[in-house]
């Protein structure tokens, strides 16, 4: 049913094809088994080239030194594929099920000195090519030293660079090995690429039987043209140990998975212990306070001059700039529901790696659908603060955060476009995003706000005084910079390992697959954020500071600052990016991700604190 709705949205977004006829906003590929008969042609598609050292991919056919068909066919892409820089097109490689080919000439061409310099720079930056067969990316194979288990790394290098001689060698021959299983019919279960650089200036097929063949350099010292001949071999191999349903396991087993598991488990148990300690302290202290406040014999002798009970006439006073906080809260609720939806679907296996770009596409669809809830809760909070312009509040909720993000991303897109990277969004994609935002998301936000404004106002257990109470000097640990540091450090301890693997997945083109752990860690993170925020607000109220609305929001989202700093640390220690535009792309995207986290968990902390304060003040007997 979900994918039926997905395809329906695709049909409605016909404007997407104005400038890019191969791109559809929510195209869902067929991910079921595709049986291949002996002698059947199997298409090989080329996609893009990526590098661990820079966040800018390039379309494979944008490279001036590779073989290209006269009129390559474009493959429809969903929104997520477009955003990640995919440009999938047909190729001239001929693969026929069951027919091995010792050597075939793809093309011969003369590469100019400028084109050779482009190839050399890409090889220096460790760019890898991504090809696709039966929705599987071509992979470089590795074997574990201890167990001998085979694992895959997506893509294969364009060549290799000798830094001592300053010479780059291009891989001009590839051996394509396609693995298949045979149950009743044949299914492709693996796609391996073994590249080779071999000197071949005569054209035709080189002698592949050489033990140590001469390598093919790209470029020359005298800036002369280079003649390249691209060849390939094809090997079909039956693989009895791999089943079609498990064919992605080798891609997902690459990397330090054991470190990931142990680190996540350690973080979970440490923070469960932390959460338990905080909860026990809060329950004991709060129960003691409530007992003393409600004890008739102690009411006149104690706590009439100090304590959080004195703030009963100010604690629910509307905050300054509430017209700004309400839209931020609505946007936070909306983003949180999107994150939960996508994570749960991924943990259930709906968003598998075979659905390329699926997380972003489904996330965009979920963002539109959750606009109703964003508008609803923004209007509910706005009404608590006696706001009357609910339409203005709804429009701010629907347009402020996404408008700022789209404006920032549009400016960044100009820099990416200047670099001719495939991650630069085409015009048609911008049209699709505008249709989703203005045509669907904003009206749904207004509809949700209408429903929220018609609901009865949330009643507070105490009345608000006309004149606000003066706030005495605050302890050092409750001053904003220190308090934000404290409330941000604890939640960050829950997720810093997960942040590392997510950064590695996004920027180093690995597959993130620990969604079960993400659900668990996310639940522990929410508990930690709520508890540490409530503790700090409770201490603040005990110090007779009744301005908690904004502070609860800032406390809840404060770990976003640590996430951004960790992203910067990752950038300088892992990516080795030296150019301005790739660094700008990383910083802007990391900033946007951190802001999204801030909005989500700031809203979680706000509503949890609001619920907590309503409960404790309702439990106090007042004169």
TrEMBL record:
It is found in: Golgi apparatus; Membrane. It comes from the Eukaryota. The chain crosses the membrane at residues 261-283, 324-351, 357-379, 400-419, 425-451, 482-503, 515-541, 553-571, 591-613. It holds the Pfam family EMP70. The keyword Signal applies. The keyword Transcription does not apply. InterPro entries: EMP70. GO terms for cellular component: Golgi apparatus; membrane. Residues 1-25 form the signal peptide. One of its GO terms (biological process) is protein localization to membrane. It is a multi-pass membrane protein. Keywords: Golgi apparatus, Membrane, Signal, Transmembrane, Transmembrane helix. Coiled coil: none annotated. Belongs to the nonaspanin (TM9SF) (TC 9.A.2) family. PANTHER family: TRANSMEMBRANE 9 SUPERFAMILY MEMBER 4, TRANSMEMBRANE 9 SUPERFAMILY PROTEIN. This is Transmembrane 9 superfamily member.
């Amino acid at each position: 049913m979900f994918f039926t709705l997905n395809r329906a949205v695709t049909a409605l977004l016909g404007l997407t094809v104005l400038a890019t006829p191969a791109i559809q906003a929510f195209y869902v590929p067929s991910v079921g088994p595709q049986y291949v008969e002996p002698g059947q042609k199997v298409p090989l598609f080329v996609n893009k080239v990526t590098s661990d050292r820079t966040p800018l991919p390039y379309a494979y056919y944008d490279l001036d030194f590779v073989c290209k068909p006269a009129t390559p066919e474009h493959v429809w892409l969903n929104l997520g594929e477009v955003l990640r820089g995919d440009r999938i097109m047909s190729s001239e490689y001929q693969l026929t099920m069951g027919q091995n080919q010792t050597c075939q000439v793809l093309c011969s061409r003369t590469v100019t000195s400028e084109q050779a310099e482009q190839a050399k720079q890409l090889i220096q930056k460790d760019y890898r090519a991504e090809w696709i067969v039966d929705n599987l990316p071509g992979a470089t194979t590795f074997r574990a030293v201890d167990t001998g288990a085979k694992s895959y790394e997506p893509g294969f290098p364009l060549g290799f660079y000798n830094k001592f001689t300053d010479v780059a060698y291009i891989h001009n021959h590839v051996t394509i090995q396609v693995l298949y299983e045979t149950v009743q019919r044949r299914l492709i279960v693996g796609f391996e690429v073994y590249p080779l650089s071999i000197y071949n200036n005569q054209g035709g097929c080189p002698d592949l039987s050489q033990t140590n063949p001469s390598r093919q350099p790209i470029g020359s010292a005298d800036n002369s043209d280079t003649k390249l001949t691209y060849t390939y071999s094809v090997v079909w191999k039956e693989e009895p140990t791999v089943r079609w349903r498990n064919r992605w396991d080798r891609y997902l087993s690459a990397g330090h998975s054991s470190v990931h598991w142990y680190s996540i488990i350690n973080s979970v148990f440490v923070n469960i212990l932390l959460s338990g300690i905080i909860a026990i302290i809060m329950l004991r202290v709060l129960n003691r306070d409530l007992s003393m406040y409600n004890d008739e014999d102690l009411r006149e002798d104690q706590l009439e001059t100090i304590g959080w009970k004195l703030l009963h006439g100010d604690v629910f006073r509307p905050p300054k700039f509430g017209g700004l906080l309400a839209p931020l809260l609505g946007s936070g609720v909306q983003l949180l529901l999107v994150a939960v939806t996508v994570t749960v679907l991924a943990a259930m296996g709906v968003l598998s790696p075979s659905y390329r770009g699926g997380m972003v596409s489904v996330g965009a669809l979920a963002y539109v659908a959750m606009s109703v809830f964003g508008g609803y809760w923004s209007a509910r909070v706005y009404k608590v603060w006696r706001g009357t312009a609910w339409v203005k509040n709804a429009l701010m909720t629907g347009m402020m955060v996404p408008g700022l993000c789209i404006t920032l991303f549009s400016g960044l897109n100009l820099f990416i476009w200047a670099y001719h990277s495939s991650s630069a969004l085409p015009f048609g994609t911008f049209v699709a995003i505008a249709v989703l935002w203005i045509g669907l998301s904003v009206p749904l936000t207004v509809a949700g706000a209408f429903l929220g404004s018609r609901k009865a106002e949330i009643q507070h257990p105490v009345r608000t005084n006309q004149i606000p109470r003066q706030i005495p000097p605050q302890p050092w640990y409750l001053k904003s910079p220190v308090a934000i540091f404290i409330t941000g450090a604890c939640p960050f301890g829950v997720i810093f390992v997960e942040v590392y693997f997510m950064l590695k997945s996004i920027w180093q083109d690995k597959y993130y697959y620990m969604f079960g752990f993400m659900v668990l860690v996310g639940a522990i993170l929410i508990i930690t954020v709520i508890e540490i925020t409530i503790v700090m607000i409770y201490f603040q109220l005990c110090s007779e500071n009744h301005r908690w609305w904004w502070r609860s929001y800032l406390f809840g989202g404060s770990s976003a600052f640590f996430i951004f700093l960790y992203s910067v640390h990752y950038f300088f220690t892992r990516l080795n990016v030296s150019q301005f535009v790739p660094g700008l792309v990383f910083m802007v995207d990391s900033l946007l991700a951190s802001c999204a986290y801030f909005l989500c968990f700031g809203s979680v902390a706000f509503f949890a604190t609001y619920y907590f304060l309503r409960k404790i003040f309702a439990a106090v007997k007042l004169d």
